[in-house]
């Protein structure tokens, strides 16, 4: 049979399934839908009574800076010297890099900087400038801003190195060995104190208007540190722990994301700096194929070849066989 | 309202090579497969009854 | 003058110049595609005799519970469930009905695949179902990042990288609670419901897919008429929309 003939036969076969001209039996659609709804409602209520739902309190900058002040200060210095993840992220936050790409496709770059974040200003200078009643601090900030970039970097590098030997004092202050840190040390001490008092949570949330709903800045700042990741690791939520599928505690998570998170576990995705765009591309392609299954050759014939349908419709086939059998 | 079974403790995870799944998720997936198999295998009531499911 | 005001009859008198009535045209097309006996059928084909057929209505019921519980949560605002036991209970119902929704939907999808339910002009049924599944995923994601707890902090700061990598992050900011809450409560559920309505209406229109014909059925061609399916080799083939077949 030629390809055209086979195709024509397949089309006729497909059209023959359009209308059922055989027998019907009575059936109560509304009653079935009502029973199903009541059953599912009961099941959802039962599961809620048995297991409730998770609600782990959010991390705040206040709690982070009190629980792990060294990590907080380390992160703050990296925001000041532009070495933090946010500072080097690229679009949509800044132009520090081009972001991820795939071959010549630079979607991240092409869509531009739509949520600008200047980590030096937004995460350090502006919050410190908002502290009133501390003229000495304001002079230190001015001294830092007036210094050359080379001098600023010398200070921040020295301070960052010193943080590896930092001690936490009784009142959650951070103490580093003596060194040449310039204004950086008092700035960081003031920022830590401000954070521990809860002021930085509010300061980062504030924008040009009174009502706030955008948590981009405080979340980006926290994500640059280790606190969120430490909690996530403890809950098995990291990317390399198949975290996308998981929920906090022992709750079932999002099992339907298994294939999405799978790619992140294997090479080349697991070691690529462009992992996200690569995985999104693979999943977009697979999603398109999923939608198009009815027209995909081979894939759309598998149900015919592996006859699970014989089990599903066995009553129907038995009835037909009985009709075909010679009468007694 | 406290739950009868507290699931807020650390989950059990099963590792096999690079596969790392929580017991809860494995149970959900197993339940899906079991429910599918049961739906296909369990006989459906005779058509003489009314109010059949479709 | 006609006193007949039955909604399915056409009014006898039209104003002059209203020959191209959009309303009448739409109504005729709608009623032709979905007459009441198809829309709310009281019969089903005899081959619908397996438990595998319940998963569609169970998915639909789960969606209904999601929307009802979500409505209660929306009525009281996003902070409510953190501070009251009743609120937490409705949040639990919302979460578990989401788990149930995906559970039944996946099993429904498996069943429909193994039945090759796209046959006989039903490709759009498959397509709308597949797209529903794919749209439900970002709908759930916006829900997870709207929880206002640690889970949403972690999920939003992680998933933003995927969004940003393909440029979507420029206009879809997972870290913006206000935007995510709007998507979750209105925009994406509306999309899911629209797709599900289309999906269900298509099923009502085209009917549940008939079984594969076995070789022995086709071989015994004298019984082709009895089995009620045109095997396509003899008579004219074509979707005969008006022909419903006889009682068994």
Feature tags:
heterotrimer, B: 54 residues, alpha+beta, two-stranded antiparallel sheet, 1 helix, 35% helix, 15% strand, flat, disordered C terminus, C: 248 residues, mainly alpha, Cytochrome Bc1 Complex, Chain C
Summarize the structure.
The complex is a heterotrimer of chains A (328), B (54) and C (248). With 328 residues, chain A is mainly α.
Description of the structure:
The complex is a heterotrimer of chains A (328), B (54) and C (248). With 328 residues, chain A is mainly alpha-helical. Chain A has a domain of 171 residues. Chain A is built from 17 helices and 3 strands. Chain A has a two-stranded antiparallel sheet with strand order 2-3. In chain A, β2 and β3 form a beta hairpin. Chain B is α+β, with helices and mostly antiparallel strands. Chain B has a domain of 31 residues. Chain B contains 1 helix and 2 strands, in the order ββα. Chain B has a two-stranded antiparallel sheet. The radius of gyration of chain B is 18 Å and the shape is flat. The C terminus of chain B is likely disordered. With 248 residues, chain C is mainly alpha-helical. Chain C has a domain of 156 residues: Cytochrome Bc1 Complex, Chain C (Up-down Bundle). In chain C, 60% of the residues lie in helices and 1% in strands. Chain C contains 10 helices and 1 strand. In chain C, α6 runs antiparallel to α8. At the A-C interface, α1, β1, α2, α5 and α11 of A face β1, α3, α5, α6 and α7 of C.
Provide the succession of SSEs of chain B.
EEH
- Which two protein chains have the largest interface (Cβ within 8 Å of the partner's Cβ), and how many residues from each? A-C, 103 and 112 residues
Task: Tell how many strands the DSSP assignment of chain B holds.
Answer: 2
Please bin the fraction of helical residues of chain C.
55-70%
CATH class of the domain at 51-206 in chain C: Mainly Alpha
Category by helix and strand content of chain C: mainly alpha
Strand order of the largest sheet of chain B: 1-2
> Can you identify the CATH superfamily of the domain at 51-206 in chain C?
Cytochrome Bc1 Complex, Chain C
């Amino acid at each position: 049979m030629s390809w055209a003939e086979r195709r024509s036969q397949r089309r006729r076969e497909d059209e023959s399934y359009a209308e059922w001209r055989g027998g019907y039996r009575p059936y109560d659609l509304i009653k079935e839908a009502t029973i199903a709804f009541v059953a599912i409602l009961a099941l959802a209520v039962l599961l809620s009574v048995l297991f409730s739902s998770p609600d782990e309190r959010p991390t705040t900058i206040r709690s982070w800076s009190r629980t792990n002040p060294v990590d907080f200060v380390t992160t703050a210095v990296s925001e000041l010297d532009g070495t933090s993840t946010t500072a080097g992220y690229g679009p949509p936050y800044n132009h520090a890099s081009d972001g991820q790409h795939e071959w010549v496709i630079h979607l991240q770059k092409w869509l531009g900087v739509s949520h600008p974040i200047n980590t030096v200003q937004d995460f350090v200078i502006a919050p410190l400038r908002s502290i009133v009643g501390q003229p000495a601090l304001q002079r230190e900030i001015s001294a830092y801003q007036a210094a050359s970039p080379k001098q600023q970097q010398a200070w921040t590098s020295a301070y960052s190195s010193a943080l590896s030997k930092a001690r936490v004092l009784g009142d959650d202050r951070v103490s580093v060995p003596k060194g040449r840190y310039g204004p950086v040390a008092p700035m960081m001490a003031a920022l830590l104190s401000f954070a521990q008092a809860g002021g930085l949570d509010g300061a980062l949330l504030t924008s040009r208007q009174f009502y706030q709903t955008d948590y981009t800045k405080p979340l980006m700042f926290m994500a640059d540190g280790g606190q969120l990741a430490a909690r996530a690791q403890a809950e098995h939520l990291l990317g390399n722990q198949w975290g996308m599928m998981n929920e906090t505690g022992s709750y079932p998570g999002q099992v339907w994301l298994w294939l999405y998170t799978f790619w992140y576990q294997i090479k080349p995705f697991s070691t690529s700096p462009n992992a996200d765009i690569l995985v999104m591309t693979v999943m977009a392609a697979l999603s398109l194929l999923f939608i198009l299954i009815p027209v995909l050759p081979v894939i759309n014939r598998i149900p015919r070849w592996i006859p699970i349908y014989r089990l599903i419709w066995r009553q129907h086939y038995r009835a037909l066989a009985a009709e075909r059998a010679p009468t007694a | 309202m406290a739950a009868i079974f507290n699931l807020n403790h650390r989950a059990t995870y099963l590792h096999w090579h690079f596969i790392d799944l929580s017991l809860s998720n494995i149970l959900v997936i197993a339940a899906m497969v079991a429910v599918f198999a049961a739906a296909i295998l369990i006989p459906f009531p005779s058509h003489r009854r009314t109010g059949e499911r479709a | 003058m006609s006193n007949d005001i039955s909604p399915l009859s056409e009014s006898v008198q039209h104003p002059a110049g209203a020959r191209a009535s959009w309303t009448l045209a739409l109504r005729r097309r709608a009623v032709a595609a979905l007459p009441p006996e198809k829309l709310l059928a009281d019969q089903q084909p005899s081959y619908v005799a397996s438990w595998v057929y319940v998963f569609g209505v169970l998915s639909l019921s789960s969606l209904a519970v999601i929307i009802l519980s979500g409505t209660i949560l929306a009525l009281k605002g996003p902070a409510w469930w953190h501070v009251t036991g009743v609120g937490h209970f409705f949040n639990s119902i919302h979460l578990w009905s989401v788990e149930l929704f995906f559970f039944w939907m996946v099993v429904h999808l498996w069943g429909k695949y193994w039945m090759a339910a796209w046959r006989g002009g039903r490709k759009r049924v498959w397509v709308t179902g597949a797209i529903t599944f794919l749209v439900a995923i970002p709908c759930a994601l916006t829900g997870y990042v709207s929880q206002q707890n640690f889970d949403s902090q972690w999920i939003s700061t992680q998933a933003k990288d995927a969004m940003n990598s393909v440029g979507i992050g420029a206009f879809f900011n997972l870290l913006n609670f206000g935007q995510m809450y709007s998507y979750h409560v209105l925009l994406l559920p509306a999309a899911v419901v629209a797709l599900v309505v289309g999906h269900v209406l298509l099923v009502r229109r085209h009917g549940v897919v008939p079984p594969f014909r076995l070789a022995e059925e086709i071989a015994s061609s004298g019984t082709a008429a009895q089995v009620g399916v045109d095997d396509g080799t003899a008579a004219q083939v074509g979707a005969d929309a008006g022909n419903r077949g006889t009682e068994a």
